[in-house]
Structures are given as C-alpha cells and as structure tokens.
Amino acid sequence: GTIGPWLIGQTNTAWADPLLSPSDVGDPNTIGFVTTSNVRQPQVRYTYLAGSGITLSGSLEAHPSSGRYITPSSSTVATIATTMTLATVGSFASDNTDTGGVTNLPTFNTGIAWDQPWGHLMARVGVGQNEIRNATGGTQITGTFCATGTVCTNTGTNNFTKWGWAAETGFALNTWGQDQWKGLLSYVVGLGNFNSDMGSTGGEAFINGYTGQYSLVKELAVETSYTHRFNPNWRMTAEVGMGFFNKPSAAAGLTNTCGTGAATCNATAAQLASFEKRHLSSHLVGVWAPLPGLFEISGQWTHWERWVQSSSTWGASNQYGLAANFYW
C-alpha cells in the first residue's frame, strides 16, 4: 500500500532498478542484478520527488537468508584430528530451523535517480548486518583445533555478526531511434540480497570452522547491454556481464584444517574450488513481434564462463531457447 510518499508492504526492493535490466533477457543469472528470490521484500519506503526528474528514496527492508555461509563443516561430536580432512566446503544458512536462527535487523538502502528524455541515471548505497545466530542447537559451525591423534570436543560458537555494505550506479541512455544502451556497476560486501550472484553461487561470507575466523565475501560486478529496434516488429538485445570475487581472508588457513603435520589433509585446491573467482554471462536475444504488445516469438543464446579460486582454468556452458509469449 502507498500513502503519499510512503510505501508499506511487500514489493520489489528499492535496490532493484527495472529500467537498467537488459531488455528481453529472461535469464535469472544476469550478473550484478537482484534477479531471483530476493527481489520482493517486506519493506517501508519513503520517496521524495525533488523536481526536474530527480527522485530521492530510502527503504528499510527485510533481510532474507538469500546467501550461503561457506564453512569447512566441523563435527558436533568428539573427533580425532587426523580424520578432519574436510576437503569440501559446505554451506550454512543463517535463518535455519533451529531456535534462535534469525537475522535481527533489516537492511537500509537509499539513493537518487534522474530521469530525462535522453534516459535514466541512478545511484544507491546500502548497509546491513550479516548475521548467523544459532546458539541453541543444530549443526555447530566452528570447532576446536586439536593436535594430531588427540580427541577434541566441539566447543565453538554459532554466533557471527558483521556489518556489510553495497554501492551501485547505472544508466539507461536513449541513443538513436528507439535504441537503448544500459549499464550497471555494483560493489557488494557480504549482502546477497543486494546481488543475486552472492546468493546463488558466490556466498555472502566464509567462516573457517577451525580457526573461527569470519570474513565477508566481496564482489565487483560490471554489466552492459544494447537493444536495437529494426522496426516495430523486430528487435535484438546483446548483453554481457562480468563479476569479480575476492578470496576471503579466512580461507588462507584451509591448509591447516587437519591438525599438525598430516600432509594428506592439505587439500587446498579441492577446498578453494568451492569459492568463486570470477564469472561471465552473455546473452543474445532476437524478438519477432507480429502483434506488438500482444504476441511475440523470441530466440535466445546464453553463454556462461566460470573460474574458481583453486586455479586459473575455467569452465563454460551454453543454453539455447525459443519462446512464444502472449500478453494480456
């Protein structure tokens, strides 16, 4: 609901700017955008129309458990250190089913937009508390460091709190005819609800289950697209985006997760393969609209590339699609 400049309820987050989304690209993995389950948020928003096409707004929004908290899983029972190889890196959600598994504070974001006949410019900043609270039971995240051959008991904690933040800016420019060039630049520190890349693959934070060190994951994302309209019935959009992830400082100790001196436990490469290094997505979409606004047929080619922290090698995949779209 809206009352004057106030909006109260669940709708698209103020962080998402639909005018910057690449036209006709339906892939939820478009880099840098809030595009999946974290789009619609319960919120309280205030919008001020400053005149001359300038809009100011601020929004308090629910902070969902949209991201992954990556940690080498530690045992909840007495463990012999030499068995703690744990080459894989698992995930742990903050808002889980255990009592106390909640995120206390909402996120806050504020920004400015400028709309003119030539296009649209925007900028936003946001802050939020990245939190895991699960002190009353369930899977323990951290354990104690034991010497080789020594039995140790998990006495770690499941309470982790850090403040994350994010900033973004973007543009949508009308070039010639009905063509449009769009771009987005975002930098996010540990807040997956401001960037779906973190929630789906990159993870919001890393907790070293043996040292207890907790560090937020950071991503710099760049995206641009161009839409050309040949005539009212034919148009085409090309899009490309690149995301760059840091290596969390807490991951530096992954070689010592087996205690002392067990060479076979130093499976750093396998562990770091769970961490994003950078990824690329690109799309090419052609649309034929025999009945503009009512019926369209589209074809799309999507290409992804992905690198992880364990090596400089990369993997790639492609997807091809054909769709008939009806609007009413």
Shape: globular
Biggest beta sheet attributes: 13 strands, antiparallel
Bin the strand percentage. Answer: over 45%
How many DSSP helices?
Answer: 2
Q: Count all strands and give the number.
A: 19
Low-confidence stretches: 73-87, 95-100, 144-156, 255-267
C-alpha Rg (nearest Å) = 23 Å
Distance between the termini: 24 Å
Mean pLDDT: 79
| Topology as a string of helices (H) and strands (E) | EEEEEEEEEEEEHEEEEHEEE
Enumerate the strands of the largest sheet in spatial order, edge to edge or round the barrel: 1-2-3-4-8-9-11-12-15-16-17-18-19
Helix residue percentage? under 10%
Q: Strand pairing plus helix content: what structural class? A: mainly beta
List keywords for this structure.
13-stranded antiparallel sheet, four-stranded mixed sheet, single chain, 328 residues, 2 helices, mainly beta
How would you characterize the overall build of this protein?
- 4% of the residues lie in helices and 50% in strands.
- It contains 2 helices and 19 strands.
- It has helices spanning 196-202, 268-272; strands at 2-3, 6-12, 40-51, 54-61, 69-71, 79-80, 90-92, 107-116, 119-132, 151-152, 160-174, 180-189, 205-207, 214-216, 218-231, 234-245, 276-291, 295-308, 314-326.
- It has a 13-stranded antiparallel sheet, with helices on one face.
- The longest helix is centred in the middle third of the chain and has 7 residues, at 196-202.
- It is globular and about 60 Å long.
